[in-house]
Amino acid sequence: MKKLVMVCSLAAMLLCSATMALAAGTIKIGGLFSVTGPASFLGEPEKKTLEMLVADLNAKGGINGQKLEAVIYDTAGDATKAVQLATKLIKNDKVVAIIGPSTTGESMAVLALTEKEKIPLISCAAGIKITEPAKDRKFTFKTPANDHVAVEKILQYAARVKQKNLAILTVTDGFGASGREQLKVSAAQKGFKVVADETYGPKDTDMTPQLTKIRSSKADAIICWGTNPGPAIITKNIKQLGIKTPVYMSHGVASKKYIELASPAAAEGIMLPAGKLAVYDVLPKNDPQQKLLREYDAAYKKTHGVEASTFGGYAYDAFLLVTNAIRTKGATPAQIRDGLEQTKKLVSVSGVFNMSANDHNGLDLSAFEMVKIHKGDWSILK
């Protein structure tokens, strides 16, 4: 009996030591961002935001006494490279969750691996197919609002101003293909008529042929779907062709970089659904996001010397979702997954997140404001 007691005591001591070691250890999370390459306007602010937040959290003592370490790799926007780096994060770096990638195409490529390895992936890309159907994406989540939500926001406004005949111009990558599908389905359901349906390649440098066709379609409005540099080129082409038709862009250009690339003169009057970060200074004081948005922008300006972007906000959301899950459920991949899925009323940059077993995005129409570009800045459409 005495021997048994000693064995039990030893086991208890080992368990206690392991628990103490875990509490004192470091929680590793991965980051996959397009820091360089054509999607660097997405990945660079995402990387900088995550680094800033991790440093701030650790300076305040970490999570339940544990420090957080972000192991970040640059995918350069390449889906094959993203999968290779995700494998490295899982096998070599032993991360408990991955934030990113920055684009829909990369995310679709990586999620097959993360689902197989049961590592939570919190994508910073918008394509609806990243998280749907949720029953087949048990470990996959994302922070930008679904593209069908952005489509809905545009079509609501277009209906209000009686624009019934629509021309669409979409990029042929994962983001554009998903947007095109959502545009066509939603337009048909809501009684709009698509009078022109044009596409362009991610590396195309002139879209005047497509825009010339659109001009002859007599559309009431043009909806463009893509991420820079394509939309900026389209905006310049529209100006050059003297097209006066109202133009909507997707939420994929909701940063000042788009205005800079297109030029304020060419971008004047362009409309789009944007996250509230772009217009936080004119939000009502009782808006639940206003305080957090102001603080994020101030911290980013202090650290990096420029204003925060919607895209960096996607990494902010993912960081907040992961750390909230760790606090409420625990730091293993399975515990983080459960915590993510049970997220309720979490106020962040992109909106107020309410996840469920059937919804691994958790945002609705309130995530966006319809904005118009005026004199190189954003104004809220009334």
From TrEMBL:
InterPro entries: BCAA_transport, Leu-bd, Leu_Ile_Val-bd, Peripla_BP_I. Transmembrane segments: none annotated. It holds the Pfam family Peripla_BP_6. Residues 26-362 form the Leucine-binding protein domain. Gene3D superfamilies: 3.40.50.2300. It comes from the Bacteria. Residues 1-23 form the signal peptide. Keywords: Amino-acid transport, Receptor, Signal, Transport. GO terms for biological process: amino acid transport. Belongs to the leucine-binding protein family. This is Extracellular ligand-binding receptor. It comes from Trichlorobacter lovleyi (strain ATCC BAA-1151 / DSM 17278 / SZ) (Geobacter lovleyi). The lineage of its organism: Bacteria, Pseudomonadati, Thermodesulfobacteriota, Desulfuromonadia, Geobacterales.
